[in-house]
Amino acid sequence: GIIPKPNVLTPLRGSFMLSPSTSISASHDSLLKQAVFFNQHLKAIAGFALPTGTATGNKIVLELKQGTAMPAGGYELMIAANEIRVSGYDAAGLFYGLNNLLFLIPANHK
After folding, report:
1. d(Cα 104, Cα 95) in Å, to the nearest integer?
2. How does pLDDT run across 5-17, given as a tens digit for each residue?
3. Contacts of 82 (CB under 8 A, 6+ apart)
4. Sheet harboring 59-64: ordered strands across?
5. How many CB atoms lie within 10 A of CB 78?
6. For position 11, what pLDDT does the model report?
7. For the chain, how big is the Rg over CA atoms in Å?
8. What number of other Cβ atoms are within 10 A of residue 15's Cβ?
9. What are the start-end ranges of the H helices in the chain?
10. For residues 77 and 1, what is the distance between their CA atoms, to the nearest angstrom?
């Protein structure tokens, strides 16, 4: 299962199609290390890495949400048809969110 277990899980309709043309962007340059981490593990699971930089079209967006009601180490993972948004209260929260996103990618995605 997903670890740490989400406080709230709200399934929605639709799906996100992850492909080599999906891009990944970060709200701040300091988060690019997290994008590198994600890409290293994605390559092992899916056989490809995502381009990083300004994201357009089908994209994954990484951001910090400090100063919100989210606790330290907390994260939000929102998946829509053309965007995945991983928001962490801090670096630890972003790490947990990205790990759980990787967990959701089927191992036979290649």
Report:
1. 14
2. 777 777 778 889 9
3. 16, 57, 58, 59
4. 23-26, 59-64, 83-88, 75-79
5. 13
6. 78
7. 13
8. 9
9. 32-46, 91-104
10. 15
